[in-house]
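Entry 12.
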Amino acid sequence: MNILAVESSCDETAVAIVRSGREVLCDCIASQVELHRIYGGVVPEIASRKHIEAIYGLADQALLQAKLTRKDIDAVAVTYAPGLIGAVLVGVNFAKAAALALGKPLIPVHHIRGHIGANYIAYPDLEPPFLCLVVSGGHTMIAEVTDYTKMRILGTTLDDAAGECFDKVARVLDMPYPGGAALDKMAQLGDDRKYPLPRSKPGANPYDMSFSGLKTAALNLIHHAQQVGEELDIPGLCASFSAAVSDTLVPRVAQAIRETGLKKVAVAGGVAANSRIRRDILAAAEALDARVYMPPLSLCGDNAAMIGAQAYYEFLAGNTADMSLNAYATKSILGEKI
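Predicted 3D structure (tokens):
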């Protein structure tokens, strides 16, 4: 089954063709990073306009790279939530038009389910049930994937996402956008015990997380140093901040392994590219005799291949949509009625 998949939830326009959930025939991406870098972050209106400019050409490029024609497409999939609403709308409207013109099924895919689905591409042997740590710019959660389209959220951030905190601290340190990658690179040169930073314990649910206090502590430290003319150890601060984020995430994953008995742990989302988190979760899982599934860096960020992978299983579960499909800025991963 050849699925034409579309992703436009933030600042990457992407179109891919994925066969039966696991084989990527092509994955075409038009990045807007250089455009938004001058602003230090994504400008939603600009992102939406650039999606409109790029999406049609990317679809033609995808067919060309896959050596397929429009008649070879069996379904059209699209990220319908969550994301920047104007950006998501571009992808949804294109996918609806493509599905209608081709006379093929339309498959809506939740963006975070797509990130989880990236692991099916990287690991053809991976099947539910398994645990998944989702860490991205807008979401942080630990989920139990009981089936391809059925999930249980064990815990989530109660405020900021881990990726948002990485980017905000990097921006205040005048690092280039996207800040998370620049901060990670700098952290590898520093002492992670240089600056004491808080680790959250936000409430009754031991799996829930909070990052706002950590972000505030780091920003206050930076601003205080600037105000009194104190020189900061930038690599040390980056390393200390990365360690604090990892220390918030990884012990909770380890607890989930122990309590659920699941010995398979996937990592998903853009922050899954962070070297400290990758290293720590591998060590924690090894100590518990669990296997870790981490997609390559190319599949950690936003892409359409992951949407096509998850779409196959959404289709098998009967999760298709008609031309009334709308876009949503926020939506639960649990798959309530569209």
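Annotation: The two ends are 23 Å apart (CA to CA). The mean pLDDT is 95.
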